[in-house]
Amino acid sequence: MVATDIDTEVMHEHVVVRRGARSSLPIVVAVHSTALGQAIGGCRLAHYPHWRDGLTDALRLSAAMSDKCALAGLPNGGGKTVVALPPGRTLDAAGRRAVLHDVGDVIAGLAGTYATGPDVGTGPADMVTIAERTPHAFCRPVDHGGSGDSSEHTAVGVLAALHALCAERFGSADLSARSFAVLGLGRVGGHVLRMLADAGATLIAGDIDEGRRTLTDAAGAAWASPQGCLTADVDVLVPAALGGVLTARSVPTLRCAAIAGPANNQLDAAATADLLHERGILWAPDVVVSAGGIIHATAVELHHETSAQAAVRLRGIASTLTDILHTARATGSTPADAARSWARQRIRDGHR
Ligand SMILES: NC(=O)c1ccc[n+]([C@@H]2O[C@H](COP(=O)([O-])OP(=O)(O)OC[C@H]3O[C@@H](n4cnc5c(N)ncnc54)[C@H](O)[C@@H]3O)[C@@H](O)[C@H]2O)c1
């Protein structure tokens, strides 16, 4: 069959499914696209009912990474590693090391077409272990020559996106004039809350972990339950916990005017973008908003740029989002559709 442009949008270039030689665990590495450059995407170590569910996740997440890289203007494509742990399976230190070496061997066999980083279930220290088998592992700790934890850079990107979103939705990028509900106060959400407080914004925040209340106290924010936060009567909702928070059930309960946050995969389904659009809630696509960490890490570690050059790329999130929101407004489409078209066009151009 002759490959067409449509095929390159949906087909992965290379997918490896391997039983780890040391761990006997199923390892999936999906390389979605190298049209713009080396494919990148984190290593997910998570429980799945069946390894095929891990394969499905790897295919979906690697395709989303292609969009994320294209929208971030990175010379990279999308990939993903998934280690599918059987239900209830735990790993001791030796077992973890074994599976990370197995992952490193699979990546080493890809001749540099793909590099991995941290994701759900893995962190910078795990990248050091993978790097014992392949050089294609980034986001290692600073004392191992890497750029370390990316959450603060992700938060900087979120702030850039919030400026652009407020300018489009409210006619002013001034955050001190706006109210925000930050849902999830983990590594990224905690930074975002502090930065919004520094900008003089009015704040509500919540987390399933009551221990995070100290962060709201320090930021002068009001504490709310996760549900109270989600449905707060604020200008902007900032999803910073897990994905899937915007659904056909939750959208009718929202009282915000706009949404932008770092949480990945905020929409439970593509059609939920239409529901937000119908309600007049302006949603900033998470693939654009959450890219700060990967932009910084790849710029510094893979492309050997200075921190100053990386910072310029990071601030570019604001202009990218502005372009997407303007396109969506001009064409009457959703920001999700505008972002997808933009990304696919860049990837197609890269194939030519
Ligand atoms: N860390 C990064 O650089 C980065 C980069 C891109 C995207 N993201 C995404 O941003 C989100 C946050 O990442 P993180 O690194 O801060 O994670 P994290 O694990 O440090 O924090 C997540 C927080 O959400 C809270 N939480 C979990 N379920 C919740 C719920 N139902 N309601 C309210 N709070 C809940 C947790 O208690 C925790 O405090 C994730 O979706 C992640 O995939 C993170």
From TrEMBL:
SMART domains: ELFV_dehydrog. Pfam families: ELFV_dehydrog, ELFV_dehydrog_N. Coiled coil: none annotated. It comes from the Bacteria. Keywords: NAD, Oxidoreductase. Residues 148-352 form the Glutamate/phenylalanine/leucine/valine/L-tryptophan dehydrogenase C-terminal domain. Belongs to the Glu/Leu/Phe/Val dehydrogenases family. This is Leucine dehydrogenase. It comes from Phytohabitans aurantiacus. The lineage of its organism: Bacteria, Bacillati, Actinomycetota, Actinomycetes, Micromonosporales.
